[in-house]
Amino acid sequence: MASVRKPSLSPVSAAFSRSLGFVSDLLLPRRCISCGTVVEGEGALCASCWPNIRFLSRPHCECCGFPFEFDHGAEARCAACYRDLPLYERARAVFRYDDASRQALLAFKHSDRTDVAPAFAGMMAQAGSELLADADLIVPVPLHRRRLISRRYNQSALLAQALAKITAVVAVPDLLVRTRATPSQGGLGAKARERNVAGAFAIRQSRSAQLTESRVLLVDDVLTTGATVSACTKVLLRGGARAVDVLTLARVVRPTTE
After folding, report:
1. What count of Cα atoms within 13 Å lies in the side-chain half-sphere of residue 239?
2. C-alpha closest to that of 101 among 169, 63, 146, 54
3. Model's pTM, two decimal places?
4. Domains in the chain, please, with CATH?
């Protein structure tokens, strides 16, 4: 996958940029998004919190990315995908959503820690490299305008835009629209989540031509039951997308019978 070539800065501009960065680090030092410890560079997590994060990798379900304890073969699927194959083709996530990762996710989502979006996107680019290699468009799960106004940013859109900056894939943050303000999914079961988001998404008509025959990478922060990404996938496929893959920062991993 080709990378986008960035124009180089002049020596004076580069020196000025480094000076600004140095002053910024002194006045507003970067802190671990989980515990608040000062960290170096662009990392979102400190050396103490990093080992507690349970990163996801193979072996896993080739469809939804559910982690397996043992390798079941290249095309293995989990029991849930055998029972009810999702509308999307593949889903991948960086790490488990659990006690160790929850604080980092909540800080990014609700506490204005938008500065960590590039670091998180870098992790997502690695975890979803096979999906990004096939993608034509990166599309985030949208927020309803009321929630966007109250929160001031859509964390999924920030991740999508950051992913676009480090890959050759185009992000279209406003392709999907949330047509009604749904209650929070927190505390709802799988069926209730499906009912909650049913019919809640639509394609922005001015973007519909971009969608035709495109392979879409749908981006969200957390995959729980899959109700939200499934509702979005249904709309994208009806709107003309060739296929949809899903990439999230985290996913809930509940015990299951394989």
Report:
1. 24
2. 54
3. 0.85
4. 11-52 (no CATH), 53-251 (3.40.50.2020)
